[in-house]
Amino acid sequence: MTILSVPELTICGIDELQAQSGRRVTHVLSVLDPDYPEIEAFTNYGDHHRTTLRFHDIIAPDPNRLMPQQEHVEAILRFGEEFADSRESGRDAHLLVHCHMGVSRSTAAMLALMALAAPQEEAESLFARLVAVRPQAWPNSRMVTYADELLGRKGALVTALRHHYGRQLVAQPRFSEWMVQLGRGAELDMAVPV
């Protein structure tokens, strides 16, 4: 099973979805806040398979918000297996993963899908490919931790995530202030300085 042969992988935010409508997207994974309304942009897309998951982009418990859970990442991996099955049938495919901003939940989901599809690929290589698809990637650490466990990566994805955070703090300095504002300072503490 491989995602490498897919003609196109796209990660985006909600405000970018309309611009993707003419690009023959065949599979969509939507990751939204639980109370977010249905997205109208998809009415302009051609025939496609879409899965929607709903949870908040947080890494610590909050009584008013739903944290990513193991079952959410399991659902992402099931989506990936279905995607791989469609590829084996010879269909061309364009995989689009989005969340609200196209930065955290969607990039964590795409990383999980890439790791599922390429079980022998080194974690650092997966992150390099992720950044090639979405340069502003800051994957949700809780989701990556679940993916690491579920895929039997023995901490490799989490270790590579720490290095990725360190590189992103140099490449995208705004993340430092942004993650503090979002209550995700623990991810800044995870970063391995470059």
Compact overview of the structure:
It contains eight helices and four strands; from the N terminus they run βαββαβαααααα. The chain has helices spanning 17-20, 70-88, 105-117, 123-133, 141-150, 156-171, 174-181, 185-190; strands at residues 8-12, 27-32, 49-54, 94-98.
Q: Given this structure, which CATH class is correct?
A: Alpha Beta
Number of strands: 4
Strand fraction band? 5-15%
Report on the biggest sheet.
4 strands, parallel
Q: Classify the oligomer.
A: single chain
Average pLDDT, rounded to a whole number, is 93
Helix % is 40-55%
The main sheet orders its strands as 1-4-2-3
CATH superfamily heading: Protein tyrosine phosphatase superfamily
Alpha-carbon Rg, integer: 16 Å
CATH topology: Protein-Tyrosine Phosphatase, Chain A
Provide a descriptive summary of the structure in words.
The chain is α/β, with parallel strands linked by helices and 194 residues long. The protein has one domain: Alpha-Beta Complex (Protein-Tyrosine Phosphatase, Chain A), CATH 3.90.190. The protein contains 8 helices and 4 strands; from the N terminus they run βαββαβαααααα. The protein has a 4-stranded parallel beta sheet, with helices on one face. α2 (70-88) packs across α3, α2 crosses α5 and α3 packs across α4 (123-133).
